[in-house]
Amino acid sequence: MAYADFAGKTILHTWGRFRATAGEALNAGDLVDQDFCEADATAGENPATCIACQDIASAAEGWFCLKAELRKAPTIAVGGGVTRGDHGGTAGDVLFLSTTQGAAVEVPDGDGLLQVVGRILSQDTILYDPSPEYFEDMELQTANKTLDIQDVGKAIAVVLDGGVVTIPATDVGLSLMVVNVGQDGDCAVNISAHSDDKIMGPDLAGTDEKDLINTKATARCMDRVLINADGSDGWFVQKIIGTWAEET
What we know:
By secondary structure, the chain is an all-beta fold. 0% of the residues lie in helices and 40% in strands. It is built from no helices and 23 strands. Strands 1, 6, 9, 10, 11, 12, 13, 15, 17, 19, 21 and 22 form a twelve-stranded mixed sheet that branches. Strands 14-16-18-20-23 form a five-stranded mixed sheet, with no helix packed on it. A hairpin with a 5-residue loop joins strand 7 (75-76) and strand 8 (82-83). The two termini are 36 Å apart. The mean pLDDT is 96.
């Protein structure tokens, strides 16, 4: 069972509380953008910057915070039996901003904005802590993908175990970003170069037609690599996060 965002969030702890005027009606626990409206990962929308601490009417002043621990409330059956709340997620998993306004998801749920907004703490608790780092133009890949010049400037977000991202032949000016958005240890991601091209970087031999692999056993959610083409030998790693190895 996967994490499901839930209504009626109970706020257990908050950090960085402040008062502001809501740009629209908000519910306690909503992820909120810089205009104090519900944050939304849909392309062209704003990232999450804070969390609503209470239900707030549109144009009314209320409490917000920068970080919050939230709980799904338990249910009480007839006769008083209590069942602990369960959002369906796995402790330790990363949460991303959803294309559903104000909500979070375990796996990005569409092209648009890529932002980590928190983590799952337990069966019934989550931590919202919106990251100031985000990618404005993310393309979600759930199948193998061959990139072209129209993918320059995007974050190619892969959520497919063994997924292969094939990059074009080297050409000066091309720059590509590949991100593993599978949860820790869930997905291996392979970046496959053209037969005449190398992928060169830290501790890489730089051999023609050898994949650069984010190995499954050591993969962490949001591992990523930014590569630039030199137009001659192949591609150079400009930035790398996580454990990536050259194909043997």
